[in-house]
Structure formats: C-alpha cells, structure tokens
Amino acid sequence: MTYRQCGTSSVQLPALTLGLWHNFGSVDDFDTATQMILRAFDAGICHFDLANNYGPEPGTAEENFGRILRENLASHRDELFITTKAGHRMWPGVYGDGSSRKNLLASCDQSLRRMGLDYVDVFYSHRYDGVTPIEETMQALVDIVRAGKALYVGLSKYPPELQAQCYAYLREQHVPCLVSQYPASMFRRTSVASAEDSNLSVAAKNGSGFVCFSPLAQGLLTTKYFNGIPANSRAAKATGFLRTEQVTPERVEAARALHAIAQERGQSLPQMALAWLLHDPRVTSVIIGTSSVAQLNDNLHTLDNLAFSADELLRIDQILSHEGVAM
Ligand SMILES: NC(=O)c1ccc[n+]([C@@H]2O[C@H](COP(=O)([O-])OP(=O)(O)OC[C@H]3O[C@@H](n4cnc5c(N)ncnc54)[C@H](OP(=O)(O)O)[C@@H]3O)[C@@H](O)[C@H]2O)c1
Question: CA-CA distance, 197 to 210, in Å (whole number)?
C-alpha cells in the first residue's frame, strides 16, 4: 500500500480506502463482509469509511463493522482510521435528518455506540441540507472534536461556494477541515476538474485532503454490464443505489472503449479507472466499495501503475466527452 499526506495535515491515508455504504448491512453476507475488512487491513487499507445510515437497514453497517472489530481487530484500534458521517435521513421525526446541531450530536453518540468505539477519527457533515446555517453545522463538528468524540472533522458534498466558508469557520475555531469527500469518477469528473472552482481545487487551496467516492461509478466502470444487467450486481439489487436506467448504452459503450485502453496498459478497467483519479496528486485516496474479496484483490493492483501518457489521457478524455456518458 502507498500512503498519501491528507492535505496539509500530518495524517497519512492509504491511496485506497474501503467504504461500507453497500455490502456490509444486515441484508448482506456477514462472512464476506468480515473477509473483505480483514483482507483490506492485511493489505494496508487502514482507512474505513462509514456513515450512520449505511446498511440497509440503516445503522447495520456500523453495527457489523463494530462486531468485526471486536471479534478480529480489537487490539488494532490505533492502527485504524475510522470515519463516519451524519446528515441524511436516519430516524423518524424532524430531528432524524439534516445537518442541525441536534441531529449531528445525537448521531455521533449513536454511531459510537453501534461501533463500540470511544471516538472516530473523522466525523463528517454528510451534506449541506440547504436550511441549516453552515455556522451551526460547523460549530457542532467543532464541539464533537472538543468533546473527544472525533479527532478531526470532514465535509461531504458541500457546494464549492460554501466549501471555502466552512473551511474558514473551522480554521478560526482551530479545528481545520482534515478531509473533503466528493463523488468522482471517469463518468463524473466535475468535482475533480482542474478549474479553480472545482471541489478538489477549493479543498487543495484550503489545505484539506480530498477523497473520491463512487470511483467506479457504482460498478459502471467495470466489465459487468457489457452484456446486460447480471443478477447480484448492484443495479439488479432492490437495495442498490445504482438504478437500471443509469446503465445506458452510451455508458456501456464508453466502458468498452476504456476497457480496450486498460488492456493495452495491462490493467483491468477498474484498476485503470481508480488509477485515473489517483493520477492527480491532490487526491488523497479513493474510497472503493466491493462486494467480494476478489474485487478487492483486483482493485489493490491499481497501485502497480498510476502513470498515464499524454496520448492515453487524450484518448480517455475523448471517450468521456461523448454525449450521454457523464453522470
Ligand atoms: N459522502 C457520500 O455521500 C458518499 C456517497 C456514496 C458513497 N460514499 C462512500 O464511497 C464508498 C464507495 O462508493 P461505491 O460503493 O459507490 O464505490 P464504487 O467503487 O464506485 O462501486 C462499488 C461497486 O463496484 C463494483 N466493483 C468494485 N470493484 C470491482 C471490481 N474490481 N470488479 C468488478 N466490480 C467491481 C461492485 O459492484 P457489485 O456490487 O455490482 O458487485 C461494487 O459494489 C462508499 O462505501 C462510501 O463509503 C460516500
């Protein structure tokens, strides 16, 4: 594993992070979940990304992760970097959703209980909810750190115009934003564009680390949809967030063309798609989600080749610029 400095902090994070959004809930196979966590840890992936609502059922990814830690990794807490978030719908009633102080403080306590932890390494505001003043949300994050329940704070999916304001507030409170988390993949390039106002550029300018989520566009950047939607794929699952209508002929065609370039490079398509994100040194880590140990093993080989020639980058850009490919 290679480790990268998270923004201007001293924290090192592995170039690959394992996320528990799908595949770790009560509807999933617990043994496979355990094997994936242990394989990741053995391979040097010490960074695990969760949220209060991951499952389904919401909360069960944290419960399962807590159980896996207790049963297998209890003596390794200081080697692990565990993050969680709050801000999406989690419990009934008006306080179970959004980015209010009320929601964040209760959520943090609930997450710690579910995982059986004294603290998390990062507590994120999962999203800007469009209503709560950012000062209220940021102060809640600061107070969570001051209470010893998180070591650092993070932002997820804040629009660029609010990102800089959040960073400034947190800096003034001496709890700088360690890490920012955004959707980014070959099919979703806006957040990692070189433009000065992209989320990545704003984060880098403010010294925040940057992690990319859904780096394989939830599985679209693999070969699995080349001949329709296979049973057991995320698009086929009732509990999956990838909708069948997002598996379009244009994207499958683009994935085929990208696969041809990956083969020339001696890589699988997922490896090339992950490498394409990590090619930018401002990206701290990509958060992968896997449904099997075989997928995890495949993705680990990404790090064997992160270099792209100018010609490869140009050909990739041409494929991604076709109409109907961007998500
Ligand atoms: N902050 C936020 O709002 C937010 C939102 C979304 C995600 N996230 C974070 O990002 C993490 C990753 O997101 P994601 O799960 O959407 O990531 P992803 O890597 O884009 O998609 C993961 C899916 O791709 C397929 N896959 C992965 N590696 C493969 C391989 N080598 N070969 C074939 N198929 C492969 C699997 O699909 P199948 O299941 O079909 O096998 C897997 O479930 C989440 O777990 C979460 O921690 C954060």
Answer: 14
